[in-house]
Amino acid sequence: MTLRQYIQMEKLIHGREIPADILLQMTAEEPDEEFMYYSEWKGSLISIFDMQLHHLIRAYSKVNNQDNSLMQEQLSEIKKVLRVAWLLQKE
User: Fold this and answer.
1) Spans of the chain, pLDDT less than 50
2) What's this model's pTM, rounded to 2 decimal places?
Protein backbone atom coordinates (compact mmCIF):
# COMPACT_ATOMS: atom_id res chain seq x y z
CA MET A 1 0.00 0.00 0.00
CA THR A 2 1.36 3.40 -0.95
CA LEU A 3 1.51 6.53 1.17
CA ARG A 4 -1.16 8.01 -1.14
CA GLN A 5 -3.50 5.11 -0.29
CA TYR A 6 -2.83 5.43 3.45
CA ILE A 7 -3.62 9.14 3.36
CA GLN A 8 -6.88 8.48 1.49
CA MET A 9 -7.79 5.76 4.02
CA GLU A 10 -7.05 8.13 6.88
CA LYS A 11 -9.48 10.63 5.36
CA LEU A 12 -12.23 7.99 5.30
CA ILE A 13 -11.51 6.51 8.73
CA HIS A 14 -11.13 9.79 10.61
CA GLY A 15 -13.59 11.80 8.55
CA ARG A 16 -11.15 14.67 8.12
CA GLU A 17 -10.09 16.36 4.93
CA ILE A 18 -6.55 15.95 3.66
CA PRO A 19 -4.64 19.19 4.36
CA ALA A 20 -4.66 21.39 1.26
CA ASP A 21 -0.86 21.55 0.89
CA ILE A 22 -0.55 17.76 1.05
CA LEU A 23 -3.50 17.24 -1.30
CA LEU A 24 -1.95 19.66 -3.80
CA GLN A 25 1.35 17.77 -3.81
CA MET A 26 -0.35 14.38 -3.78
CA THR A 27 -2.42 15.17 -6.86
CA ALA A 28 0.25 17.08 -8.80
CA GLU A 29 1.76 15.41 -11.84
CA GLU A 30 5.16 16.53 -10.62
CA PRO A 31 5.23 17.34 -6.90
CA ASP A 32 7.68 19.88 -5.51
CA GLU A 33 11.21 18.63 -4.94
CA GLU A 34 10.78 18.10 -1.19
CA PHE A 35 8.05 15.55 -1.99
CA MET A 36 10.34 13.59 -4.30
CA TYR A 37 12.89 10.90 -3.48
CA TYR A 38 15.74 9.63 -5.62
CA SER A 39 15.25 5.90 -6.07
CA GLU A 40 18.60 4.23 -6.60
CA TRP A 41 16.79 1.12 -7.86
CA LYS A 42 14.79 3.04 -10.49
CA GLY A 43 17.56 5.55 -11.13
CA SER A 44 15.15 8.48 -11.02
CA LEU A 45 13.13 10.73 -8.76
CA ILE A 46 9.79 9.35 -7.56
CA SER A 47 6.96 10.92 -5.60
CA ILE A 48 6.96 9.92 -1.94
CA PHE A 49 3.20 9.42 -2.31
CA ASP A 50 3.87 6.52 -4.70
CA MET A 51 6.20 4.76 -2.25
CA GLN A 52 5.17 1.76 -0.18
CA LEU A 53 5.07 2.82 3.49
CA HIS A 54 7.93 0.51 4.52
CA HIS A 55 10.08 1.89 1.67
CA LEU A 56 9.27 5.44 2.78
CA ILE A 57 10.37 4.58 6.34
CA ARG A 58 13.66 3.11 5.09
CA ALA A 59 14.28 6.13 2.83
CA TYR A 60 13.56 8.52 5.71
CA SER A 61 15.96 6.64 7.96
CA LYS A 62 18.65 6.64 5.26
CA VAL A 63 18.30 10.37 4.61
CA ASN A 64 18.39 11.12 8.35
CA ASN A 65 21.56 9.07 8.72
CA GLN A 66 23.20 10.85 5.76
CA ASP A 67 22.21 14.25 7.18
CA ASN A 68 23.72 13.34 10.56
CA SER A 69 26.94 12.14 8.94
CA LEU A 70 27.24 15.35 6.95
CA MET A 71 26.60 17.42 10.06
CA GLN A 72 29.29 15.49 11.97
CA GLU A 73 31.79 16.10 9.14
CA GLN A 74 30.96 19.81 9.11
CA LEU A 75 31.33 20.05 12.90
CA SER A 76 34.68 18.31 12.69
CA GLU A 77 35.90 20.83 10.11
CA ILE A 78 34.67 23.75 12.22
CA LYS A 79 36.50 22.36 15.26
CA LYS A 80 39.73 22.11 13.22
CA VAL A 81 39.40 25.72 12.06
CA LEU A 82 38.69 26.93 15.61
CA ARG A 83 41.64 24.97 16.99
CA VAL A 84 44.01 26.49 14.42
CA ALA A 85 42.62 29.96 15.17
CA TRP A 86 43.08 29.37 18.92
CA LEU A 87 46.68 28.14 18.41
CA LEU A 88 47.50 31.16 16.23
CA GLN A 89 46.04 33.49 18.85
CA LYS A 90 48.31 31.98 21.53
CA GLU A 91 51.45 32.79 19.50
Assistant:
1) none
2) 0.65
